[in-house]
Amino acid sequence: MENKYQKVKDGLKEEIISGKYKIHDKLPTESELMQQYAVSRYTVRRAVGDLESDHFIYRIQGGGMFVQDWHKDWSAPADTKLIGVITTHIADYIFPNIISGIDQVLSQAGYSILLSNTHNTHQKERKSLISMLDSKVAGLIIEPTQSALPNPNQDLYQEIKDDELPTLFINAHYPTFDFPYVDTDDLAAEQDLVNYLFGLGHESILGIFQVDDIQGVNRMNGFIRAYQQRPELSYMSNIIMYQSGEDTQKLFERIIGYLKQHDAPSAIVCYNDQLAIEVIDFLKSQNVQVPTDVSVVGFDNYQMGEYFTPSLTTINHEKERMGADAAGLLIKLLNRETVESITYHPEVVERDSAIQRVKPAK
Fold this sequence. Notes:
The protein is an alpha/beta fold. It is built from eleven helices and 14 strands. It folds into three domains: 2-67, Arc Repressor Mutant, subunit A, CATH 1.10.10; 82-184 and 319-344, Rossmann fold; 186-318, Response regulator (Rossmann fold). β5, α6 (154-162) and β6 (167-170) form a beta-alpha-beta unit. The longest helix has 16 residues, at 2-17. This is GntR family transcriptional regulator.
């Protein structure tokens, strides 16, 4: 009985917190919940009673059950030294370096960090935000999740703003909220990267961009702008768009489709180094030589890219510096000082995966 009761309680609570049921939305009836969870009426009433005591649900006599304004008093105690850090990932790619930069500065100032990751999904972002707020953190450093898409968690961000909880964004920012941020001029950097390839004689270039993150959208726009400034080459541009979580095999099939064309791209620009390394591995499996047959470049200057074969041409990313700068700005916010956002202007890192294009003999 205990397991069934807890299943109903946790299931309803999860649906409320996740935003499936908004504040003042009507919930399913007891009979509907009995059918949904295959439990008795007593079990449903016990679970609902607990949620009512926890201020997640209220009843209207003869009208049913509704979602209560369950948002709590999340203001932090004055002496708390805990900072919440939410990124899309934690243990891989560039994130350990960013987090290390954050921790070094905050720990020197007497703060500790509480980490969470969203795996770039809004549902997990919501859970992370609520967990941080429940922990009464003194401030937040957040990497936005799927920042190019409408965000269903704006109610929580609005509450953070209304509560004046010191908060800033890294890598990207939501334009609907004026929290300060530390990010990169992705558009200009990508434009520089494409111009670098033009300088190597590449004219037909394939760009592959993740478009549910604003970084990917900006990088794609930089790719497009570079071609706009070379109108004689515009017709030779090629773009593949994808979203996080998509099947990479389908992405690879599309790449091969482009490479089989008569006017096949001689270079591929990838959304980031992680994708570039995967693309190079795939091309090797198809007996396509990088960079002899096609040049491949990335973005972010991932540490492994320097030791990969061929070493990866890319755009620098101020990983540790970004973390340290973000932590420094947050400390100022905690001290109620005025801060200005920071945008980096990174440079091309030239390595072996992009070479001068050799035009085929006529």
